[in-house]
C-alpha cells in the first residue's frame, strides 16, 4: 500500500509518500482500492498543526475517497467485490488502499467519475448540514457564502439553488464568471465591503444565512449581515492559515479579533450562531447516512454536480496543498491513483 503521510507539522514539504503492507478488512468492513481522494482545507490545517482532533504525527490524512471494493471483511453486507463506491473515512484517504465500514460506503451512480465522487462527501455534507439541518433554508430566502468558488462554496451554492434561495458569494474577481454561471451575485472580497454590498442589495434588511469559513474579524462583519431571525454558520478559520506554515503570532492576532457573542445580544437581536465541525461528527453515522443518501440521489438525478477544479497524482500531494493555499482552486482539488 502506498500512502501520503504527514510526517511532522510544517509546510507542504512534510508530506511524505510511504509504503506499507496492504491492510485487511475486519468485521463489517471492506477494502477499497482508491481511484481518487479529496483534499480539504482541513488537511492543510492538520499539516500545519492547527486542526483540533487530528492524530499525532505521523499519520495519513484524508476524509474521503472513491474506488473499487476488492475484499469484504467477515459479515460485511450490502456491497460486493468489484463495486465502485464513495468511501467516507476518518483519516487515511490519501492512499491507494483504505479500509471503510460496509454500511458507510455508497455505490457510484451510473456514469459518474471517481474524481467527482471524491469531491462529494466532505463538501456536500458540510453544505447540507449548514443549509438544511442547521440553517433550515427555504425558498425565497437569501444566503451569503464566503469562499463561494471553493469546494464547500460551490457545494453550498448548488444545494441552496435546489432549495430555491437567492445566493450572494465572496470570491476573487477571476472566479466571478464561474459564480455568475451558477446563479450567484459575486462580491470581490479584496476590493469591496461585503457587508455594504449585502445591505445595498437587500435594502438594509440583510440575509437569512451566512456561511463563513474565514474567521477572525470576518465573523463580526458576517454577523452584522444577518436579517432578524438569521443565522451565522461558522465552519472554518482559514484566516489563521494564510501562510504555508503555522504562525503563533498570526493565530493570536486573528484569535483576538474573533468576536465573543453575547447570549443577551443573540436573544435581543433574534439571531443565531452555529458551529459545524464535520470531523467531530464521525460517530454520528445514523444521522449522516440519510443526508449522504440524499446527496447521492441528487447527484444521480443531476441536481448537483461536484466541480473538480484540479487533480494531482497521489505522489504530488504537496503541490495540491500549495494549489489550495495559493487560492487558485475553483471547486475541489483531488488526488488520483492510476488510470481513471
In terms of structural class, how would the helical and strand content be classed? alpha/beta
Strand tally: 15
For the record, give the distance between the C-alpha atoms at the N and C termini, rounded to a whole number.
18 Å
Uncertain segments of ≥5 residues (pLDDT<50)? none
Following the backbone from N to C, one meets helices and strands in this order, namely EEEHEEEEHHEHEHEHEHEHHEHEHE
Q: Major sheet, described briefly?
A: 7 strands, mixed
- Helical proportion? 25-40%
In short:
Strands 3, 4, 5, 6, 7, 14 and 15 form a seven-stranded mixed sheet that branches.
What's the topology here?
Layout: E1 2-6, E2 15-19, E3 29-39, H1 41-48, E4 64-72, E5 84-88, E6 97-101, E7 106-107, H2 114-118, H3 121-134, E8 142-145, H4 151-162, E9 166-171, H5 176-181, E10 184-188, H6 194-201, E11 207-212, H7 217-224, E12 226-234, H8 248-257, H9 263-269, E13 272-275, H10 285-301, E14 308-313, H11 317-325, E15 332-336
Parallel strand pairs: 8-9, 8-11, 9-10, 11-12, 12-13, 14-15
Antiparallel strand pairs: 1-2, 3-4, 3-6, 3-15, 4-5, 5-7
Helix pairs in contact: 3-4, 3-10
Describe the structure.
This protein has 340 residues and is of the alpha/beta class. The chain has helices at residues 41-48, 114-118, 121-134, 151-162, 176-181, 194-201, 217-224, 248-257, 263-269, 285-301, 317-325, and strands at residues 2-6, 15-19, 29-39, 64-72, 84-88, 97-101, 106-107, 142-145, 166-171, 184-188, 207-212, 226-234, 272-275, 308-313, 332-336. Strand 14 (308-313), helix 11 (317-325) and strand 15 form a beta-alpha-beta unit. The longest helix has 17 residues, at 285-301. It is globular. The two termini are 18 Å apart. The mean pLDDT is 93.
Amino acid at each position: 500500500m502506498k500512502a501520503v503521510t504527514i510526517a511532522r507539522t510544517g509546510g507542504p514539504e512534510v508530506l511524505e509518500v510511504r509504503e506499507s503492507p496492504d491492510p485487511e478488512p475486519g468485521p463489517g468492513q471492506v477494502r477499497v482500492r482508491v481511484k481518487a481522494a479529496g483534499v480539504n482545507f482541513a488537511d492543510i490545517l492538520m499539516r500545519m498543526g492547527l486542526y483540533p482532533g487530528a492524530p499525532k504525527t505521523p499519520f495519513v490524512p484524508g476524509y474521503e475517497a472513491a474506488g473499487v471494493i476488492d475484499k469484504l471483511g467477515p459479515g460485511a453486507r450490502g456491497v460486493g467485490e468489484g463495486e465502485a463506491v464513495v468511501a467516507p473515512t476518518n483519516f487515511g484517504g490519501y492512499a491507494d488502499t483504505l479500509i471503510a465500514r460496509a454500511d458507510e460506503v455508497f455505490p457510484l451512480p451510473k456514469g459518474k467519475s471517481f474524481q467527482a465522487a471524491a469531491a462529494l462527501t466532505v463538501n456536500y455534507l458540510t453544505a447540507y448540514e449548514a443549509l438544511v439541518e442547521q440553517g433550515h433554508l427555504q425558498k425565497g430566502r437569501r444566503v451569503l457564502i464566503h469562499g463561494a468558488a471553493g469546494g464547500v462554496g460551490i457545494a453550498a451554492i448548488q444545494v441552496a439553488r435546489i432549495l430555491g434561495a437567492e445566493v450572494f458569494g465572496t470570491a476573487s474577481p477571476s472566479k466571478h464568471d464561474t459564480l455568475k454561471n451558477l446563479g450567484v451575485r459575486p462580491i470581490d472580497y479584496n476590493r469591496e465591503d461585503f457587508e455594504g454590498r449585502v445591505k445595498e442589495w437587500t435594502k438594509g434588511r440583510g440575509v437569512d444565512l451566512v456561511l463563513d469559513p474565514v474567521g477572525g474579524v470576518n465573523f463580526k462583519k458576517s454577523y452584522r449581515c444577518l436579517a432578524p431571525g438569521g443565522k451565522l454558520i461558522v465552519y472554518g478559520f482559514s484566516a489563521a492559515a494564510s501562510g504555508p506554515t503555522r504562525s503563533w503570532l498570526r493565530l493570536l492576532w486573528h484569535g483576538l479579533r474573533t468576536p465573543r457573542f453575547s447570549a443577551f445580544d443573540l436573544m435581543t437581536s433574534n439571531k443565531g450562531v452555529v458551529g459545524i465541525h464535520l470531523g467531530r461528527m464521525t460517530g454520528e453515522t445514523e444521522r449522516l447516512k440519510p443526508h449522504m443518501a440524499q446527496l447521492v440521489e441528487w447527484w444521480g438525478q443531476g441536481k448537483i454536480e461536484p466541480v473538480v477544479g484540479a487533480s494531482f497524482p497521489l505522489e504530488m500531494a504537496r503541490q495540491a496543498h500549495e494549489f489550495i493555499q495559493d487560492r487558485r482552486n475553483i471547486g475541489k482539488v483531488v488526488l488520483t491513483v492510476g488510470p481513471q
